[in-house]
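Researcher: Let's try something more involved. This one mixes different molecule types, so please make sure each is placed in the same coordinate frame as the others.
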Amino acid sequence: MLTGAGVSAESGIVTFRAAEGLWEEHRIEDVASPEGFARNPRLVHDFYNQRRRHLLQPEIRPNAAHLALAEFERDFDGEFLLVSQNIDDLHERAGSRELRPMHGELLKIRCQHSGRVFEHCGDVFVETSCPCCDRTGALRPDITWFGEIPMHMDEIFAALDSCDVFVAIGTSGNVYPAAGFHQAAKAAGATTVELNLECTGSGFDHGEYGPATEVVPKFFSSLLMSNFLCMVQKQI
Ligand code: APR
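Model: All components are placed in one shared frame. Result:
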């Protein structure tokens, strides 16, 4: 399973590419690239401080889609891996366990010298001293920026190679390598499914369209009852 910003939209977290989305207000190269951070670390810290504060507002909670994925993982007997492009912690709060946040996590910071990662809920500034080396200016968000290699890639490609069903949820399919995962799964013999507000036209075997809080619980309860594979096999 792969999730993107659409799964958290109904929890109150703005997606990236919608009108008034996060990338309408900010230049990607300024706030989400290593070069942008080297040029202006204060701006980048401020951007992620705002995101972190928003994520920790009491009204931001996992929604029915996050909960349905966690429930499926609990009840399903087979192997399950949830790969998320999201940097929020809503899957984790919903109870997902086999979770790989490939673009990193907002509530973690990394020392640029040692590579060590620390949980962190508060603001970070250029002046914040690093918990491991005590230097200022050493910390960066533990987030994969444009031009960097996403996390957990070996494990993700091994899972794509052996999965029976690949489901992409709430992602526009604009950013690689995640945008190519369904093709890798398909090439290895999996049935591919898109659950999204609208069809992205990316060539999935099957799609269900509507708000994630509606289509995700419905789809995963039918997958659990094994209705889905029978239905798709009849269609193909
Ligand atoms: N339910 C289901 N899908 C939704 C909902 C909803 N309530 N709201 C929006 N969507 C869909 C949109 O139609 C769109 O296809 O979610 C998708 C969100 O797309 P993007 O904003 O492009 O987000 P995502 O695909 O996660 O972006 C991938 O790009 O900017 C980088 O690193 C960033 O992880 C991010 C990556």
